């Protein structure tokens, strides 16, 4: 072999092995990168691609005559249940959630996984992200927005007030801005809270009652949200419905809520703090089961009129509503604990403490006649039955063997 041929042979060999090496590397990269349906797909320049857009469109596609809904807070407790229910009946659903760590994000990921199996794409992104919202409204003509993303919890507001402003005020405004500029404008249904009744003592709570004495920053941000809704309805013709949820509980619930962490602590043999008012008065809540809340959310969506604005301008007056979604029968927290003890077959170690002045109110009690009249809202699950379903889920989800020491 002459010198020139040897040289060419070596180069060819080098190119051959370099190609094999690069090919292997590429193969390994693609194999280890998440598949397109991965639950961890995050919004950002790397996936703001035609493929990402296709997934959004596919998820938003509804059966003919059905709704196309953007659900914010879709990996949350109420959001995941509502998203699943909408998808089940043929509506198109795109979810949005920032997966923050206010409570265990692995529970949010598990909800997301379930939704993805049902064909609901949940985008990881924040409602404060204007660009993302604009992009979503550019890709899909959403008929409705179900806005459930929020910083929840009444007591946590003293620890992290900024998070309430970020999500419940700034986030709400960013979302309303995107909705008012969208063409067509969607109708909006969003989660307010029973906490807006604050120190109200007239029972049962009616939507007509005054709500100007919030007892927590959380309540104040929800009340502010109702006022902001009024503004966007008035100026831009957005159709907006606020739903005042009353202490929603059930399977896949929020670990920061009392019924949830009571269950955890009772099972672990840890003490629980049961709050009590002055003169040994029991604190009570109008606990409302998740399936009843979902029916209320769907009823509100189905009776929402269209927004009337376009190009950011109002054409005529649009619908503005607020509904209580409660159970109409308050139950003392002491009774909640007794039901849990029976269901878990474990005696709770109760520490009775005076109701702290950190946002809690003595009782809540919903008058639901308006929601009943407008969309036939009628809760059917009492606390005993609802907690039974929650406990079944809890034991299954956390794979805990029931203790037999009651
Ligand atoms: O419906 C509402 O408006 C609100 O309902 C719940 O707020 P809350 O009713 O305070 O629910 P929990 O935190 O689960 O408390 C339930 C009851 O247990 C009591 N509690 C709570 C914690 C505790 O350690 N001990 C205790 O006795 C509370 O005083 C309250 O009466 C949610 O956490 C809020 O996000 C929601 O907006």
TrEMBL record:
* The NAD-dependent epimerase/dehydratase domain, residue ranges: 69-306
Among Gene3D superfamilies, the record links this protein to: NAD(P)-binding Rossmann-like Domain
Give the top-rank taxon of the lineage listed in the UniProt record for this protein.
Eukaryota
Q: Which InterPro entries match?
A: Epimerase_deHydtase, NAD(P)-bd_dom_sf
* Keywords, ordered alphabetically: Isomerase, NAD
One Pfam family, please name it: Epimerase
Could you say which protein family the record assigns here? Belongs to the NAD(P)-dependent epimerase/dehydratase family.
| Protein name per UniProt | NAD-dependent epimerase/dehydratase domain-containing protein
Q: Which organism is this protein's natural source? A: Solanum tuberosum (Potato)
């Amino acid at each position: 072999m002459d010198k020139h041929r040897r040289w060419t042979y070596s180069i060819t060999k080098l190119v051959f092995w370099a190609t094999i090496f690069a090919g292997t590397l590429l193969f390994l990269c693609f194999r280890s990168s998440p598949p397109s349906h991965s639950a961890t797909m995050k919004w950002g320049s790397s996936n703001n691609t035609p493929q990402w857009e296709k997934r959004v469109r596919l998820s938003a596609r509804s059966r003919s005559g059905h709704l196309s809904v953007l659900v914010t807070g879709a990996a949350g407790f109420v959001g995941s249940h509502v998203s699943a229910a909408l998808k089940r009946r043929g509506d198109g659903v795109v979810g949005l959630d920032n997966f923050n760590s206010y409570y265990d994000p692995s529970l949010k990921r598990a909800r997301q996984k379930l939704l993805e199996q049902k064909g609901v794409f949940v985008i990881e992104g924040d409602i404060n992200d204007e660009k993302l919202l604009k992009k979503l409204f550019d890709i899909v003509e959403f008929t409705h927005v179900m806005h459930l993303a929020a910083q929840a919890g009444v007591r946590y507001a003293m620890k992290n007030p900024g998070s309430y402003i970020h999500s419940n005020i700034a986030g709400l405004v960013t979302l309303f801005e995107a909705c008012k500029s969208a063409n067509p404008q969607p109708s909006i249904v969003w989660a307010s809270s029973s906490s807006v009744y604050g120190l109200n003592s007239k029972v049962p709570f009616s939507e007509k009652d005054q709500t100007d004495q919030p007892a927590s920053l959380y309540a104040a941000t929800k009340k502010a949200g109702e006022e902001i809704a009024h503004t966007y309805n008035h100026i831009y013709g957005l159709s907006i419905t606020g739903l005042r949820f009353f202490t929603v509980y059930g399977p896949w619930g929020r670990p920061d809520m009392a019924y949830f962490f009571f269950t955890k602590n009772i099972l672990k043999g840890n003490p629980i703090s049961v709050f009590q008012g002055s003169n040994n008065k029991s604190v009570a809540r109008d606990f409302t089961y998740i399936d009843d809340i979902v029916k209320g959310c769907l009823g509100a969506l189905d009776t929402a009129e269209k927004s009337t604005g376009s190009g950011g301008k109002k054409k005529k007056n649009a619908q503005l509503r607020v509904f209580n979604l409660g159970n109409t029968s308050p139950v003392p927290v002491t009774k909640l604990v007794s039901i849990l003890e029976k269901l878990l077959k474990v005696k709770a170690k109760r520490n009775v403490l005076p109701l702290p002045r950190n946002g809690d109110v003595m009782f809540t009690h919903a008058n639901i006649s308006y929601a009943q009249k407008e969309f036939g809202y009628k809760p059917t699950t009492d606390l005993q039955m609802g907690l039974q379903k929650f406990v079944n889920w809890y034991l299954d989800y956390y794979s805990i063997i029931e203790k037999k020491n009651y």
